[in-house]
Amino acid sequence: MKFSLDLTVETQSDWVDTVIADIPSFLQDHADCERKASAMALSLVAKYPDRHEIIPELIATGIEELEHFQQVYKIMRERGIPLAKEIEQDPYIKGLISLIHSDSKRRFLDRLLLASIIECRGAERFRLISAALINDKILKCFYHDLWVSEAKHGHIFVKMALEYFDKEHVYTRLNYLNNEEGKIIAGLKLRPALH
């Protein structure tokens, strides 16, 4: 059974060029994304305390994302890059949130599946950045390692969904959300940000 997904729209090389041209801004945005990813995993624990089967994995994921935040912040400090005082609203996440059902049961499924898609997109982009960073061995290695980690998280969230929902329903909804994510990502303005 396949727990990950193939993204419907590949990131364009223009995005990579935009990031490479402004690594400090990208690192600031990346740090904020890791902080939010940790908070998201732990918010699922808080909102769904009766989902005993997945709570240990959610806690472990939240801790791992917080460790990623710590690692990005360490790199930023070493390079004299402060955390951003204000982070722009993320149009990618805003677009994805608009796809979430409002009723509790379907909302739970959508949150898990969108987490999977977001992690898969992050993995794809970290891989691209790692490949493009030919003159910065520290960041190249860092983003290579993150690529591997984020790809693993994409699997985790689909597996969690399959604990509670019928396989056909999970994959039908995942395909729909994945297609919509492709439309959102294709329409985004280029900026030195993860999304």
Number of domains: 1
* Oligomer category: single chain
Alpha-beta classification = mainly alpha
CA-CA gap between termini: 29 Å
Taking all Cα atoms into account, the compactness measure Rg is 16 Å
The tally of strands reads: 0
| Low-confidence sequence ranges | none
Query: In sequence order, what are the helices and strands, one letter per element?
Result: HHHHHHH
Summarize the structure.
This protein is an all-alpha fold. The protein is built from 7 helices and no strands. It has a single domain, classed as Ferritin, CATH 1.20.1260.
Structural account:
With about 200 residues, the chain is an all-alpha fold. It has a single domain (about 15-80, about 105-185), classed as Ferritin, core subunit, four-helix bundle (Ferritin, Up-down Bundle), CATH 1.20.1260.10. It has helices spanning about 15-20, 25-45, 55-80, 90-95, 105-130, 135-165, 165-185. Helix 3 runs antiparallel to helix 6 and helix 5 (about 105-130) crosses helix 7. The longest helix is centred in the middle third of the chain and has 29 residues, at about 105-130. The chain is globular and about 45 Å long.
